[in-house]
Amino acid sequence: MMKAIRAVRALGPIDARGIQRDPLLRWLVVYPVFLALVIRWGVPALAARLEGRYDFDLSGYYVLLMSFLVELLPILTGMVVGFLLLDQKDDGTLTALRVTPLTRAGYLAYRLTMPMAVSVVMTLAVFPIAGLVRVAPGPLLLMALGSAPLAPLFALLLGAFAGNKVEGFALGKASGVLFIPPVLAYFVDPPWQWAFGLMPTYWPVKAFWVQQAGGRGYPAYLLVGAAYQALLLVPLLRRFDRVMQG
Amino acid sequence: MSRLPAAVACDVRLQYRNGFYAAAAFVAVVLVVLLRWLPPETLRLLLPALVLANMQVNTFYFVAGLVLLEKAEGSLEALVVTPLRPGEYLTSKVLTLALLSLVEAMTIVVASYGLGFNPWPFAAGIALTAALYCLYGFVVVVRYDSINEFLFPSMLYTAILSLPLLDYFGLWEGWLVYLHPVQAPLVLLEAAFRPVPAREVAYGLLYGTLWVAPMAAWGVKAFGRFVVAREGVR
């Protein structure tokens, strides 16, 4: 615990300075709120239009639309932190950390928890503002926690496998398609739907559908998802640690 | 004249080494696997929009990454003292990324939908989109020094680019959309899958081409301001 506190105290300011230099934190606050407001006002207007023109009822798909956010917010956080890591890699900050008293374990723990915390806070803020579907505070907190490991997953994916910024964009493009399957899974009935479970992004999204349909078993999906995400984090952490060692 | 081929060869090497081709191949495979579930009439509507959205990454974001890397390494400033002209530098970026996009999009369409589409307007649409997106990406990113400064504003820049898709899906209609530069290549992509009146195809070709020249001029000017004169680098 002491180690963790030391890590936050040592690295927090570095990240904060990085964030001051890059107006990242401001954006991380502004963007989700902006997105939530666009959803709050834009989607009902769109639904009215579709209803009038095509006799198509969009409100039946509100749950699907909002389930998108369950994965979008952690992935977005992860990508941003991942690019921050690549910026630090390119300007030598990561190398400089090796000669500080900060332990490697402390650094890695910090790198895992920081994006998770940001992602949880964003999720808790965006859902009530967007307000298309009602999620009670308890279930919402569980969703936020169950999808949070996606943030360090994407951050470390970039940090461990991209050698520089350009590779980061190429990798970002490749991992961006992980975003699509959970949404398609919505239209596929079980047992085929389970095939989508290979994607770590599927589980929290599925949990949201179950919870919105009134299913009481949704925490099970979140647990499976979190366990799967944690399992994938292990090799990524190892590799990122090796990259850090140069 | 041998300067441009040299620049193209250099760009291809750089893009290959940084995984651009590997990423495009991976995305193409995943998309084909997913798209094969959909019926042809849905694909006819979806593919032009999907190709356009995918090209945003291939051109706008890839140019951004390349420029930021070249800036960080100082090789962009080094270009100032080489005989390679800004126009040639930009042309090389457009050519290489247009080719990458064309191969990727053709693969996705042929493998998911088949050969029942017209490749000519499709290729023209891709070439025009690549030119517009690459030049726009360069003009925007050359003002920034790090990805983190650029990442969030870029989402607004790309949202502006994607406005014609609102009209495409019938969410907002009006003749104004025909003034948007990206509407031109989108009409061409659409013409590959569905019968589109000849005057619309002509509009797509002419209006799209008309926009390339001022965008290129803007790109060269931005190169002069932000690379040569190092003005306003934050």
UniProtKB/TrEMBL annotation, chain B:
The chain crosses the membrane at residues 20-39, 45-69, 94-116, 122-144, 156-181, 201-220. Keywords: Membrane, Transmembrane, Transmembrane helix. Pfam families: FLQE3_permease. The keyword Ion transport does not apply. This is Fluoroquinolones export permease protein.
